[in-house]
């Protein structure tokens, strides 16, 4: 019980309590940052324990939902704090999550897996269904607001925002039903066996303890990120980067658990699990975040800019096309991983220097 996975969540929560409502500077910022990183790493550990207990593909849903809870909580709190650029924070974060997952995470998984196993195989039925749903939700949430004429700017009217939120939630709900009930076999790994299959699942007591510690970690991550956000924004302003990079920083932080779990699965030649995590987390990021933010915006009457600019739309369209070509054959090699990572590098470069 004295393992780091128990100590870190408690320490992170204590740091949150001691720093809540304060504006840390200097050494205290470093302490908050270390506690935040530790809480994220502990979160993925406990989420994986719970996921191992419930099995696939339900386990990947737990990781995806955990990341979405962090993302939604962080966006809502930062939006409620106001400040310049808060109306576009949800858009920047969700778009960044899409690009990080579909290019960064998938590219890294393909690279690591192909270097070790040469050719990677996965189920086309499940991956293409996830990609089709993700493309539809991303277009509804991030592209169409730039072309509607009811309201000025890249925004939806209240009715349009409500429709987009409901549509996103419906699409995500049907996808989860298909993944976990109707066509569960489409999302199971192609290769049977593997080291995880021979490991006994944790006991119900261990899984419940990990579930409680996971909740502790999620609360600590959201709270500590809010505490550290002024320092993040100050650093971005100091280097002269655009404010949209705040969304990139948030998305990279909350997707750290997904990335670690997905890369480990790819290294074990379980790229189907990696794709379940990657595409599932991107779909959850949009399908759950947009409805939640829409409700908050409608209730509070706050402005919400969702539409992407031309540069971001090109990157989004290119990512969808390349990802479709990657998953269509059901097999991938080092080449596909390299293409995705180059696109990810282009996204990061253009985020800093548009």
From TrEMBL:
Residue span(s) of domain Sodium/calcium exchanger membrane region: 28-180, 210-351
Location(s), subcellular: Membrane
Keywords from the named record: Membrane, Transmembrane, Transmembrane helix
One Gene Ontology MF term: potassium:proton antiporter activity
Main location: membrane
Matches recorded under Pfam families: Na_Ca_ex
GO cellular component terms, semicolon-separated: plasma membrane
Membrane topology: Multi-pass membrane protein
Transmembrane domains' residue ranges: 31-51, 58-82, 94-115, 127-147, 159-178, 207-225, 245-263, 275-299, 305-327, 334-352
PANTHER family (UniProt xref): SODIUM-POTASSIUM/PROTON ANTIPORTER CHAA, SODIUM-POTASSIUM_PROTON ANTIPORTER CHAA
Protein name per its UniProtKB record: Ca2+:H+ antiporter
